[in-house]
């Protein structure tokens, strides 16, 4: 069905329409043409995007292969700052309702991650369902292996009155807020004086907080490969050779208690009743609800 719409005149006209609605900006030199064989416009609408300072309405277009959004200049007519995210890069993560911020979810990609909010639960359901569905299809089509790491979701300015790194600097007109591009924290200037190249986020080095900078630049201890000492010449031993503690080396009363891979301490050393130590660890629990497009 999708393929049929793709070639239909209506679909081509709608895509041309979207394309021209982004072309009005004065400095819009980087607006990309959207018409492409096989591309279908699935849905469109205004979503509230959590921006650095506050939530703002943004126009979104969901195609079968990309998500396009931009700032609204004139409702239903003109948009600027076009951004394009390939669907196969998107991980959708549910957000619980929080006060007035309802019907939201996270859009995570290696280059950019942010929260968006729909006006109703059903609208949210529709957007997320199609984002996941077409994202999966794109992953299959392109054979891309999803990036392991997504960009950090920026903490909104309003959520930090003091620096999230030093926990000392009080933000004010003079003490400006900055965002670490690695972890998304709101930090002070002196806690974010370093830049680091995060290729997926930007081709230029970006501001990072001191904690992230230390982690990113930490020198890992080199792996020491010890030479294997030559084996001593075989000598005849009298009696049993000395070997590491083995299950069968234990006295019979301890043997039952010696459970490999359980408690690291040796049971019953003082001759008391041997125990098996701790119970085995419980099975790992399921990870929290999050849907990667795999
Ligand atoms: Zn600080
Ligand atoms: Zn950081």
From TrEMBL:
Transmembrane segments: none annotated. Keywords: Metal-binding, Zinc, Zinc-finger. Residues 40-136 form the PH domain. It comes from the Eukaryota. It comes from Cordylochernes scorpioides. It holds the Pfam family SOS1_NGEF_PH. The keyword Lipid metabolism does not apply. Residues 157-217 form the FYVE-type domain. Residues 257-294 are annotated as: Disordered. Residues 260-278 have a biased composition (Polar residues). The lineage of its organism: Eukaryota, Metazoa, Ecdysozoa, Arthropoda, Chelicerata. This is PLEKHF2. PANTHER family: PLECKSTRIN HOMOLOGY DOMAIN-CONTAINING FAMILY F MEMBER 1 HOMOLOG, PLECKSTRIN HOMOLOGY DOMAIN-CONTAINING FAMILY F MEMBER 2-RELATED. The keyword Zinc applies.
């Amino acid at each position: 069905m999708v393929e049929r719409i793709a070639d239909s005149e209506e679909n081509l006209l709608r895509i041309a329409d979207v394309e021209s609605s982004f072309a009005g900006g004065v400095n819009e030199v980087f607006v990309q043409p959207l018409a492409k064989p096989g591309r279908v416009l699935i849905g469109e609408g205004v979503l509230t995007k959590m921006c650095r300072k506050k939530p703002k309405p943004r126009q979104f277009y969901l195609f079968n292969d990309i998500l396009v959004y931009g700032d609204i200049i004139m409702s239903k007519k003109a948009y600027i700052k076009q951004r394009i995210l390939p669907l196969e890069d998107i991980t959708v993560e549910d957000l619980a309702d929080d006060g007035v911020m309802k019907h939201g979810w996270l859009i995570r990609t290696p280059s950019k991650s942010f929260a968006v909010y729909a006006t109703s639960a059903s609208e949210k359901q529709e957007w997320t369902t199609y984002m996941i569905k077409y994202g999966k299809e794109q992953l299959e089509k392109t054979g891309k292996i999803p990036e392991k790491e997504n960009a950090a979701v920026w903490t909104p300015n309003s959520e930090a009155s003091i620096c999230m790194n030093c926990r000392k600097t009080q933000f004010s007109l003079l003490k400006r807020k900055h965002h670490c591009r690695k972890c998304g924290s709101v930090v002070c200037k002196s806690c974010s004086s370093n830049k680091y190249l995060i290729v997926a986020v930007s081709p230029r080095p970006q501001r990072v907080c001191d904690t992230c900078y230390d982690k990113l630049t930490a020198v890992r201890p080199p792996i020491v490969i010890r030479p294997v000492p030559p084996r001593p010449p075989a000598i005849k031993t009298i009696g049993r050779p000395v070997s590491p503690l083995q299950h069968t080396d234990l006295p019979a009363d301890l043997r039952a208690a010696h459970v490999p891979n359980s408690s690291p301490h040796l049971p019953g050393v003082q001759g008391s009743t041997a125990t098996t130590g701790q119970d085995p660890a419980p099975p790992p629990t399921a990870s929290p609800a999050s849907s990667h497009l795999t």
